[in-house]
Amino acid sequence: MAKRNQTLGEFIIENQNAFLYSTGELSKLINAIRLAAKVVNHEVNKAGLIDILGTSGDVNVQGEDQQKLDVLANNKFIQTLSNREIVCGIASEEEDDFVAINSLDKKHQNKYVVLFDPLDGSSNIDVNVSVGTIFSIYRRVTPIGGPVTMEDFLQPGRKQVAAGYIVYGTSTMLVYTTGHGVNGFTLNPAIGTFYLSHPDMKYPEDGQIYSVNEGNYIHFSEGVKKYIKYCQMEEEDRPYTSRYIGSLVSDFHRNMIKGGVFLYPKSSRAKEGKLRLLYECNPMAFLAEQSGGKASDGFHPILDIEPKELHQRVPFFCGSKNMVEKIEEYMKIYG
Ligand code: P6P
């Protein structure tokens, strides 16, 4: 049973026997994430003081300007995860292709692949809005002893063994699941230790917050438009409120605590939606389901989607179970 104010290290040791695979492996994975999170947190918090704000001058595979901090966070997570003799491959939003991590013994004995968005919402950094790191962990499916292949990364979200995010906000939190519920840890920056501050997080079954970029309203499908009008329907005295930060991790985190639903639909501007299946939607969907929430592409669970390519985008509706199901009702009728 999680004890409030337990440290992350104590929590991992106490719960590692519940991890699907061998005990020490989870510890190494989460400890690598923890270390990288502390380093990135330090850089994010001082970004305004040194010359790492702004764009790096490069463009990533998504066609988005790479922020200097995107590159820094990306390199730090790759370096930290590569140093552990447990990860055989990494896929990042900032990398065109996956990165094979060859074990020191060159016998390809490492068993896990990690997919991540190193700094989600990074365009908000220059205006001091919270950003986050999102990670997703799978066990490889190709034989140990051989090189990692694309097949190891293109697994449905249902196969994740762990997933989580770090939100670099007014406080820095690490929120993750290994398939046994969701727990949140807050960093005490004075001593660099994460403490269990949100044990056994539960997504409220209902909520009054809807999060969508209403600037895209005229480009949405009829079903999405109808749902947004349902949220705004004052004649039924619906006390909904619109909250949209433009940083997925922050919008998700707030909605998981208060209740609410996040929408990033496809539109005439984004034919398949904007958010990436493998390193944004799947990990957030795993967290949502593990805390009693729901995540859908409007018709099917996100976690059941069979990925076709590394940077695949999908429509994304995620949050309080009843709110996602209401959206699915509208999508079923109006598309
Ligand atoms: P828009 C940030 O770029 C991001 O990937 C998510 O963090 C966020 O929810 C979304 O895009 C915001 O996109 O098109 O509304 O600015």
Question: Can you offer a commentary on this structure?
Answer:
- The chain has 335 residues and is an alpha+beta fold.
- It has two domains: 8-198, Fructose-1,6-Bisphosphatase, Chain A, domain 1; 209-334, D-Maltodextrin-Binding Protein, domain 2 (3-Layer(aba) Sandwich), CATH 3.40.190.
- It contains seven helices and 15 strands.
- The strands form three sheets. It has an eight-stranded mixed sheet, sandwiched between helices. A five-stranded mixed sheet has the order 12-11-13-15-14, with helices on both faces. It has a two-stranded antiparallel sheet with strand order 1-2.
- It starts with 7 loop residues before the first helix and ends with a helix.
- The relative contact order is 0.14.
- The model has no long low-confidence stretch (mean pLDDT 91).
- Bound molecules: 6-O-phosphono-alpha-D-fructofuranose.
- 6-O-phosphono-alpha-D-fructofuranose binds next to loops.
- Residues 120-121, 123, 213, 246-248, 274 line the site of 6-O-phosphono-alpha-D-fructofuranose.
Level-1 CATH class name of the largest domain: Alpha Beta
Quaternary structure:
single chain
CATH superfamily of the largest domain: Fructose-1,6-Bisphosphatase, subunit A, domain 1
Q: What spatial order of strands do you see in the largest sheet?
A: 4-3-5-6-7-8-9-10
Estimate percent helicity: 25-40%
Beta-strand portion reads: 15-25%
Q: What characterizes the major β-sheet? A: 8 strands, mixed
